[in-house]
């Protein structure tokens, strides 16, 4: 297994979490004696009753990334415009013709399924001691602050600037490494285009975020069939920290994004990536582009598997609004200036929700407390 990434947990002041031996959701879901959902998995807010958009015009934008790589300036210009509209109106889009082999994404989903099928005692070694471990297998976000167990099994590991991965099952590390490399190549192309869509120089986001040392994570989610899906939740509404997340799944519905006050089902096109804006791109644009709220519902029909790859700044980088989007009168900065590491620390502390949309004064008060 790779050596531990040099995360300064002492500076982060993250208290180690030593939960009792965790049982995955998978064996519970497969239990023949389960007649009702255990209360610890009951999510009180019934997301299934919230309004869902059925407007055919409300379709998630599609971006052909191949034109950003090999297209002429005339061909790239409308794509940059489409990207601007997608990021400002939606905070997300589907990416097609991205060059990541479909066979590779399917192999990742299959090998993660094999990981989930491992005996509990074999998975136990990857459960980790605290939420900042570079490899961590769990069901929730943070056992010290979680109020309810999520209906999912979750494996998270850091893939850049240093690569970490479980060493089982056979072939897992090799597939994860190749997918991570190919995924990062796509993210770089998109971030360059997003810089241009904001009217900034092409390399602005990469330079401002120190992306060369930026943190990349592979987060795989296993949502087993749930006998009472209306009482459970896969992942509650949240936005991702970082700049950009790219996601694939096994074709089973469950992911939703919020748009104009309604939830919209995300049904990915074949071999498409789902891209959504993270909090730190929202900060960099001073709110011009919003980190999209999304959630994952439980279902009683089929197991859903997703593999998400968030791409963030380097841990020691302060992400602040670009000067072009700030003035002292009509456009003051909307976010406090803290490092990516400090931002994650606030999220883990439970002092703020997973959506960092506090105004400037509230943010200062929270950070100072």
From TrEMBL:
InterPro entries: DIOX_N, IPNS-like_FE2OG_OXY, IPNS-like_sf, Oxoglu/Fe-dep_dioxygenase_dom, Plant_2OG-oxidoreductases. The keyword Oxidoreductase applies. One of its GO terms (molecular function) is oxidoreductase activity. This is Fe2OG dioxygenase domain-containing protein. Residues 213-313 form the Fe2OG dioxygenase domain. It comes from the Eukaryota. SUPFAM superfamilies: Clavaminate synthase-like (SSF51197). It comes from Quercus lobata (Valley oak). Keywords: Iron, Metal-binding, Oxidoreductase, Vitamin C. Belongs to the iron/ascorbate-dependent oxidoreductase family.
